[in-house]
Amino acid sequence: MTTTAQAFGTALIGQTEKALNAILDRQLAGTGITEPQWVTLTLTVVSGGVIDRTELIRRVSGATQFSQAAVAERITELTAAGFLRDGGDGRVQVTDEGQARWTQVRTAIGPITQGLWGDLPAEDLATAGRVLSIVLDRANAVLVGP
What we know:
It is a single chain. The chain is mainly α. The chain has a domain at 18-113: Arc Repressor Mutant, subunit A. The protein contains six helices and three strands. Helix 2 (35-45) packs across helix 4 and helix 3 packs across helix 4. The protein is globular and about 50 Å long.
């Protein structure tokens, strides 16, 4: 598939984000996990499988712009589904089922992302990462406001 390069801007960023979310949604289909739950589960797993509930809420909210109440609700849903459990000490833990489901989805996504950008030059990826990080930082500053 050949495409004409689009100018960098909100349309390109938005279309890319929508396409990547559609790919993720296909992988999540049938897993019992929604995209907002996926973010919450992922941040728990990559934190070592156990994380302070307040810290998890802060991290997910910061990464997604979801309200803290919405993140707390996702934690409750994941706990009810058996993917997370309350550690009883203010911490949230990934269950064996949650780890297995996360690994299943990550394993399916790996080759897809490799096909999307795995063959791009490291310098291009570094540049894209720097530019998107700057844009993200500035967008977050706008959200925080003066």
